[in-house]
Amino acid sequence: MTLFLFNFLLAIAWMAFNADFSLTGFVAGFALGHLVLWLARPLYPGQRYFHVLWGSFGYILWLVKEIWVSSWKVARSVLGFGPAVRPAVVAVPLDVRTDMEITLLASSVTLTPGTLSLDVSPDRRTLYVHTMFGEDAATVRDDIKLAMERRILELLR
Amino acid sequence: MNMAEHLHQALVGLLAVGGAFFCLVAALGVVRLPDALTRMHASSKAGALGCGMVLVAVALFFPGIDVLARAIAAILFLLLSTPVAAHMIGRAIYASEPPDSVIAPYDELRGSADDPAVRMRQAHAKGAEKHAAQPPSAKIRTGDVT
Amino acid sequence: MSGEISPFLSWCLVLALIMLFMAFALTVLRVLRGPTKGDRIVAIDLFGVLAVAFIALFTLYQSRIVFLDAAIALALVAFFGTVAYARLMEKQAAEKLAPTREAENEHG
């Protein structure tokens, strides 16, 4: 968090030096400041700033790719030449614990077409997912746990 | 117009048509799919993707950075609000559907302890117990004292 | 922006607008037909998203940026409408499941 503030201040300093208070100036300053902080990594061991920043960037890219790929699947089904629609509700046991992690997982599940998070159990141990292609409950569970939840845990822990 | 401008406008046009195509798929899904929850799959996601693609086309078409910022803000808000809205509608549909109507042939939630219908009934029973244990007259009296 | 639009782009925009109009018509069909309340809410939610996409397309069609602000405002507001409908539906479901509700109201 401190590193993020540093990075932010460096970006503002860059904008001030160039007298360029625009979004382009901010992005350029932020990128340059980030590079400088990254080069000075050994100065502050044990921080997770770079990991989280780059990780979330990669996660968003992966999510966009997933949305794109599986949108095609749903579109083909709707138009009538894709896999058959077999609605099912599957219980997915959760390894994520905090509010942040559960919200992120549930939103990601909903954004990937074919799956839709319905409800979280009151003890927050189970996520109930409605799926369009539920021929096999174990496959749906593995898709969510191995692909999505693993990435979220790697990113936030 | 030179070649680069033509290519740029062609890209914008293809993105717009692609976005409109996904919007149309979402609407078709809402009409063709069998039940309310399955229809949501088409509407919430294909709709958001189509809308996002059109917004990207707008961001690419106009040169200014302010348009880019506004389009990105709109896309981000769309991506944030769609899952929340979908989650709320989904739960409402699931809770209001009578248990005997087939919404999904394979269902691990219906009838389990986490079923919203079961939970509502339990919460209600608990509320009734509280009322039975504590007569309403007692409540009024404490209200007068404070 | 030069304001000049190539023939290919204007053709694409017209095609996209036609597709969107078809989507609007299908959504309205579902709102009118929808056997349950949930179907109608889903269709109304989609209608809001389609309207945002339509305004964005119209921005391109007219080459005027001002319309984009309307799209953003609509994206913000449509979401709240959907949430309100969903809450109402959940409340009604809870009331239907609670047959002794009237007794409770007498107490309170």
Give the helix/strand layout.
The complex is a heterotrimer of chains A (157), B (146) and C (108).
Chain A: H1 2-18, H2 23-39, H3 49-79, E1 88-93, H4 99-111, E2 115-120, E3 126-131, H5 137-156
Antiparallel strand pairs in A: 1-3, 2-3
Helix pairs in contact in A: 1-2, 3-5, 4-5
Chain B: H1 3-32, H2 36-61, H3 65-96, E1 106-107, H4 116-133, H5 136-145
Helix pairs in contact in B: 1-2, 2-3
Chain C: H1 7-33, H2 37-62, H3 66-97, H4 101-107
Task: Give structural attributes.
heterotrimer, A: 157 residues, three-stranded antiparallel beta sheet, B: 146 residues, mainly alpha, 2 domains, 5 helices
How is this structure best described in words?
The complex is a heterotrimer of chains A (157), B (146) and C (108). With 157 residues, chain A is mainly α. Chain A folds into two domains: 42 residues, no CATH class; 108 residues, no CATH class. Chain A is 62% helix and 11% strand. In chain A, a hairpin with a 5-residue loop joins strand 2 and strand 3. Chain A is elongated and about 60 Å long. The model of chain A has no long low-confidence stretch (mean pLDDT 81). Chain B has two domains: 105 residues; 35 residues. Chain B has five helices and one strand. In chain B, helix 1 packs antiparallel against helix 2 and helix 2 runs antiparallel to helix 3. Chain B is elongated, with a radius of gyration of 25 Å. In chain B, 48% of the residues are buried. The termini of chain C are far apart. The relative contact order of chain C is 0.09. The chains are: A mainly alpha (157), B mainly alpha (146), C mainly alpha (108). Chains in contact: A-B, B-C. Chains B and C meet through helix 1, helix 2, helix 3 and helix 4 of B and helix 1, helix 2, helix 3 and helix 4 of C.
Q: Quick summary of this structure?
A:
The complex is a heterotrimer of chains A (157), B (146) and C (108). Chain B is mainly α.
Find the structural class of chain B using helix and strand composition: mainly alpha
How many domains in all of chain B? 2
- Rg of chain B, Å, rounded: 25 Å
**What pattern of helices and strands is seen along the backbone of chain B?**
HHHEHH
